[in-house]
Fold:
Amino acid sequence: MIQLEFENRAGCKVTDEEWHKIEQVMMNAKPVRSAGAGKIIDLYQRFGMEVINMMYEMVEERSRFIDEIGELRHERTDILKANQKLRGFRDTILKAYKEAEAEGNRPKKAIIS
Structure:
């Protein structure tokens, strides 16, 4: 649906900013999207921009959550990679220690302060 079609069916003009919000709600709010364009027009006629603004804020918050989840998944992947490297380093140290011990050269214990 385009802005002109919405205005004709709703019976009033909307600003470009209002149309942007209406369009975002139509595309991203699953109940509105699945009910069709008539639902957003009905909501607009019954409650005005107030309900659209509330739904728009929820759509924006959902978008922020999706972005944050993506960032957290990326960070988790980085942490898992670093953990894998550290495990490899630990395994190398343990292997060297066991080899030295098997040769009769017991390594001195490190003092960690």
